[in-house]
Amino acid sequence: MKKTILTGVKPTGMAHIGNYLGAIKPALEEVEKRKENADFFFFIAEYHAHTSVKEPALFKEYIYDIAATWLAFGLNPDKVTFYRQGDIPELFELTWLLACHTPKGDLNRAHAYKALVAENQEKDNQDPDQGINMGVYTYPILMASDILLFDTNIVPVGKDQIQHVEIARSIASRINELYKTEVLVEPQEEVKEEVATIPGLDGRKMSKSYNNSIPLFVSEKKLKKLVNKIKTDSTGPNEPKDPDTALVYDYYKLFSTPEELSVFREELIKGLSWGEAKAQLFEKINNQIKGPRDKYNQLMENRQVIDKLLVDGAQKARAVAKRTMERVRKNLLGL
Ligand code: TRP
Known about the structure:
Layout: E1 3-9, H1 17-34, E2 38-44, H2 46-49, H3 56-72, E3 80-84, H4 90-99, H5 104-108, H6 111-122, H7 134-148, E4 154-157, H8 162-178, E5 188-191, H9 220-228, H10 247-254, H11 258-270, H12 274-301, H13 303-333
Parallel strand pairs: 1-2, 2-3, 4-5
């Protein structure tokens, strides 16, 4: 039996190198590995992003950025059903029905919500729910709907998303039990092996919020500038460097073969200057990104191409969604 594998990406900012190495690259490799025995659904979760992104112009830009980025790195819409959440009206209908089967307590216990409550308590705010909108609170139900609407078997996720898949599974199993039939497929998370945390320019985890990220598709000139900003110690030009404490070395590792890496290692130990080391690193990164960058720029200048692909993807997705909803309405509502 073919498995359905589904994953969503939240457009909350321009994609950076951490997103590429940590999410995009492994997901596309997975498609290549399993395409014979799985159906893939990748979608843009822009309605989840709306819990925080409230600027329409930016919102739209992030959606195109994500779509163009995935396509630029080789996502093939013939092998993957690729669509935008908002193009699937059935999703929002299912969200409501699922809400009617979700214990409020489960959402009280959701990690993301609890973290915000804890922040309020730390700040001694009178209201523990201050500044928390219902979108944040019911986020797990919309995500359950994303998953259950497509009879998903497997959801590849990072550790922070495990609980969300558990909530989806528990909603499905509660409904199946109540109606004494398999109305919804109960999904499993597949926790991705810890992809090494991608460090930012300052050595902390690469994150938009730390302002330490290398955006994927900046110009070559800008990329060179950013690479030059990578933190180094004060070892002088001809002095031996310690690769194991060098962030430049960590980066090099992410973009090179083991053989290339060991050459680079030797050179650092022999006293390669930081400037020269960064120039080599720039070449490595740029070589991998050049092709996708051109493709990305092309797509961003021809957005109707992206629109068309997403509309086609939504059409494929909706065919499945409609079938699921017929089954759900019949079993839950008798309609
Ligand atoms: N919550 C996920 C994240 O923040 C994004 C997401 C939304 C998702 N719906 C999904 C992931 C469904 C997997 C399946 O990364």
